[in-house]
Amino acid sequence: MEGFGLSGQLNLQQASVIVVGAGGLGCPALQYLAAAGVGRLGIIDHDVVETSNLQRQILHNEQTVGMYKTESAALAIKRINSRIQVDIITEPLSSLNAANHLQNYDIILDCTDNAPTRYLLSDTAVALGKPLVSGAAQRFYGQMCVYNIGSDGLCYRCLFPKPPTQSETCEETGILGAVTGVIGNLQALEAIKIITGLHDNESNMIVFSALAPTPFRTIKLGKKDPTCAACGKEGEKWCGGPAPDWEQQGLADGGPGSRISAREVGRIQPMQVIDVRPRTEFGICHLPQSRNVPLEDLITNPSAYLPEDNNVETYIVCRLGNDSQMAAKALKELNKDSDNRVIKDVIGGLRAWSRHVDANFPVY
Ligand SMILES: [Zn+2]
Predict the structure, then answer these.
(1) In angstroms, what is the span from residue 225 Cα to ligand 1's centroid?
(2) Which residues are catalytic?
(3) Which residues have C-beta under 5 Å from ligand 1, the single-atom ion?
(4) What are 333-351's pLDDT values in tens digits?
(5) Ligand 1: distance of its center to the CA of 255 in Å?
(6) What global pTM score does this model have?
(7) Three-class secondary structure of residue 340 per DSSP
(8) What would the mean pLDDT of 291-303 be, rounded to a whole number?
């Protein structure tokens, strides 16, 4: 193929990729990496195959139910390409073993479904200086991003400095199998681009929504954050030593300007900010103090989202300022009798926010 050639194929043969998670994302990623001829593939997973996995974990099948996912996936990709080396690691990944397991591979694929492992993989990728191709999928939505690429590529912690207090996995919220197929394939594609020198070394997040008229969107993420605790200048201090306790840091007092006095708070009208975008988009970026109520949830049961106190003003925001109008209308309909409540939508949405208020807020 023009633009790829024999050199591209030889690069693939000499490359190694470690795939963490042999589930909905890991299976399609491994399938395409094996078929493309990546010379050495590692698979990390400690779960066994269950029947309920089969709608999305397409390397496994009815005959391998009960088998470790690592073994089942290895069998399947060996059937595709018997010439590649496949290493399996059937144990949970932890901060004690991550660097050891990941250090012998060129690229790390995050195909897991929980927040603590995302932070662990990101911090380990930074410490080892390796690109991390990260995927996530829930319900009809997915996202994919390459972290720690090139000399100034950002890491997961640059984007999400504080780990969430609780995490949802697709076991709880459900997922359409073909959606994980889309994201897992994109992860394989990014890995192949990096190996063959076709990647532009930019960190862009691809956001996928199966039901949207334009299902793919790209968000430019920019460069690494110099104040990032993992990859910024300060962070480099702890790469060789023990990592800070993130939870403790989250509970500690902020620096100057990060807190507000009671008197100052008194001058601000009591208000709630509702962000009606899908959860995936809210997870990528949102205004401080805003709460996420996806549009369909709000429309289904608007009365649940009116504040009890009439004096609390409600502001609704979305990406461009269209969905927020529908949400504001639904709340106002409920509120016909008393016109003293303030319910407003933000004109131009978050796009206008980043243009006029905060230039650092991501545009997409
Ligand atoms: Zn960082």
Answers:
(1) 6
(2) 170, 318
(3) 155, 157-158, 228, 230-231
(4) 887 666 677 888 888 888 8
(5) 19
(6) 0.68
(7) coil
(8) 90
